[in-house]
Design a protein that fits this description.
alpha+beta; 4 helices
Amino acid sequence: MEYEFSPLSADDVDAIVSWHYDPPYDFYDMESDPEDLALFTNPENRDDKYAVFDSAGDRVGFFSFDMGDDGDILEIGLGMHPTSTGKGRGKAFAEAGMEFAAETYGPEIYSLAVATFNDRAISVYEDVGFERQETFMQETNGGEYEFLRMTCSDSL
């Protein structure tokens, strides 16, 4: 499937914030964490955030990228539209994001964090070459949750 990446607009933000996932993935609803929501909706924080559209022009997800201070490790954040999850589309979506990142940022290493309960996403990330690193606790959504750090070397 072909994907088009477009800098995140105010309309994209409004649409993405309205997405609601079925439990237990409702953990990823933007409104679940007011601090993350404020960061995502702040117009000053739209650099390096992209809406992703499919070949029909439908908004199917988003990616955020943060190259960090050393310029070698690219932190990736991503989300798919709730109607696109759990249907075998994750690998192509993740690969498209990594290809876009390789062309745009040229990192040596890709890094991401995923909630440890999200076996579905972890499997997708492993399928595209990410390896499990360490787990850590993070405060979010009004509590403290375990996350898994995963990395992938630039092998695209």
